[in-house]
Design brief:
- The chain has helices spanning about 5-20, 35-45, 65-70, 75-85, 95-100, 115-120, 125-140, 150-165, 195-200, 200-210, 220-230; strands at about 1-5, 25-30, 50-55, 90, 145, 170-175, 235-245, 260-270, 270-280.
- It is of the alpha/beta class and about 280 residues long.
- It folds into two domains: about 1-175, HUPs (Rossmann fold, 3-Layer(aba) Sandwich); about 185-280, 2-Layer Sandwich (Pantoate--beta-alanine Ligase, Chain: A,domain 2).
- A six-stranded parallel sheet has the order 1-4-3-2-5-6, with helices on both faces. It has a three-stranded antiparallel sheet with strand order 7-8-9, covered by helices on one side.
- It is globular.
- The N and C termini lie far apart (about 40 Å).
- The structure holds pantoate.
- The site of pantoate has 10 residues, from strand 2 and helix 7.
Length: about 280
Amino acid sequence: MEVFSTIKSLQNAVNTAKSNGKTVGLVPTMGALHEGHLSLIRSAKKHCDVVVVSIFVNPIQFNNAEDLRTYPRTLEADCEKLETVGCDMVLAPSVEEMYPEPVNETYDFGELEAVMEGPRRPGHFSGVAVVVRRLFEIVQPMKAFFGEKDFQQLAIIRRLVEQLQLPLQIVPCPIVRADDGLALSSRNMRLSDQARKIAPQIYATLKTAVYNSKSQTIEEVKQYVTDTLNGFGVFEPEYFEIVNDTTLQPISQWSEAQGIVGCIAVWLDGVRLIDVIRFK
Ligand code: PAF
């Protein structure tokens, strides 16, 4: 595995691989890698000959300076993990390398970002789109891999590829959970032992919500989820939305869409956790 800090050197290596007939897959990350990320790389290895992982804490997608400052940066440990799953190339550029000029490009994803994370993190998805587009331009992969845990991000990246007619395929990868059901996230390590013990109740509640959906209305299921989590006295649900899985618009009848998911953001112990469950 080779680690590159400059775009040019990575591009040279990628171009050599391509000229040898290799297919190239890209897994964009912000580092602090866990099993969830590693599953993206395993999937990429199955689809492509050469896997490039980018590790870049993208300042323009943070709307909280403190969050950006304290975001874990663990390049050495990340590279050790990447070796174990057969990653071929790592791009770990500095901010100056990635953004030599001030960024004045913005994106508007309309209704896709008018819900859930969008209004709560102004500019976030535009910042994600800028960096993801740049990474696509640098690597020009045949396929790029994203986790379904960031369900809204995945929808927005698909829209970006569609809008710009980029010649690559987006491959969604399922959420990876701990044995007790908690969705893996770099943020889980900030939970106290006590909070970590109760955190799996988020997924447990979502699973019961799916069961209840056979006999309850959407409103009742939403109420059940927020009441149940509030009942523990430690969770602060920020939103729980039941949405069309393509448009991400909230629905009011189970018959309203073919694919339906529930997306939640909940605070626990000062940590913001998100999760997603499929209803159909
Ligand atoms: O999901 C992430 O880790 C980031 O949003 C991404 C896609 C790597 C862009 O910085």
